[in-house]
What we know:
Layout: E1 3-6, E2 9-12, E3 18-21, E4 24-27, E5 38-47, E6 62-68, E7 74-79, E8 95-98, E9 104-108, E10 121-126, E11 132-136, E12 154-158, E13 164-169, E14 188-192, E15 197-202, E16 208-213, E17 219-223, E18 256-261, E19 266-271, E20 276-281, E21 286-291, E22 297-303, E23 311-316, E24 319-324, E25 330-334, E26 343-346, E27 352-355, E28 361-374
Antiparallel strand pairs: 1-2, 1-21, 3-4, 5-28, 6-7, 7-8, 8-9, 10-11, 11-12, 12-13, 14-15, 15-16, 16-17, 18-19, 19-20, 20-21, 22-23, 23-24, 24-25, 26-27, 27-28
Amino acid sequence: MxxxxxxxxxxxxxxxxxxIWGCQSSVNLSQISNANLSAKSIPSFHIDSDxxxxxxxxxxxxxxxxxxxxxxxxxxxxxxxxxxxxxxxxAAPQIVGFDKEGTFLSAWxxxxxxxxxxxxxxxxxxxxxxxxxxxxxxxxxxxxxGLDPISDDQILKFTPDGALIMQVxxxxxxxxxxxxxxxxxxxxxxxxxxxxxxxxxxxxxxHRVVVFDAETGIFKRMWGAFGNIPVDNExxxxxxxxxxxxxxxxxxxxxxxxIRVSNDGLxxxxxxxxxxxxxxxxxxxxxxxxxxGETPFARNIALSPDQEQRFLYVGxxxxxxxxxxLSLRFLASIKTSVGTGHHIxxxxxxxxxxxxxxxxxxxxxxxxxxxxxxx
Length: 375
């Protein structure tokens, strides 16, 4: 059951489910009340089974994130070190780009002098000026094969062809949530164009949203769950929850796994292990939340590309859940072949891209809006 919480008090939410699979879309009208019916519409998709065309001489490891540039090209961030011993010699560079048709464009990335490439690649964002922002989430205590025992406490900013612009933070340097210079295994980031600010989901080690000037890297502000002051609770190795208690949830974030800022200045934060999406103003004032305690939820977040950004996409259950962004009403569940995904993104045409780490990756082609009826 989905719940919406306002001012930390909840009300129940009626959910109408829609199954979308392959090229077929259908509505189960038996699950919709016949009283006070009103017309609604939801996005429809089909799986692009031929996308993309990876060069034959290269192999991709786990794809942790897919970002879309201003030309609707898709750029993969993958983990070469996850390839098997027989395939590691064929590993593609960490950043691999494909055009709208799925044709290979270029590739770059990896350790070099002048910056600290993350040990465990995690999040990729391409901002409105075309800059690439890359972060990692390596936990030294995990002792993962192929990785050095170094905490990823930084975010890197590159040009589209891989020239370093700036590094925010330093490896193995975080002093916790009060640190205004370093991060602590950041999971995701997004630049908000009107203010040119970088909003970071920070993340795995810290439990906060932190904002920097995207030009200078200077700290601006931070906040925790419900707008509270974030409290240190280092979780390395990672702590994954099987369930969450009833109610609005803890007063602190768990893993702050994804972040998006809407055109109208609302910040959407995926608090993954607490299975909730919290919404804030760009100054960190708590607005609202969606919570679903009975099943995995808030794995990732994306917004539809229309000017009003009518739809909020959230990884949950066994696929991607669709909400009306402003009312937070649940509308539909999109079935995928890769589950909830790890990070998701949309392009200007409405297509949905899913990076699912060890499960794979997928593009869902937007077919348009289809009508449904709901209370």
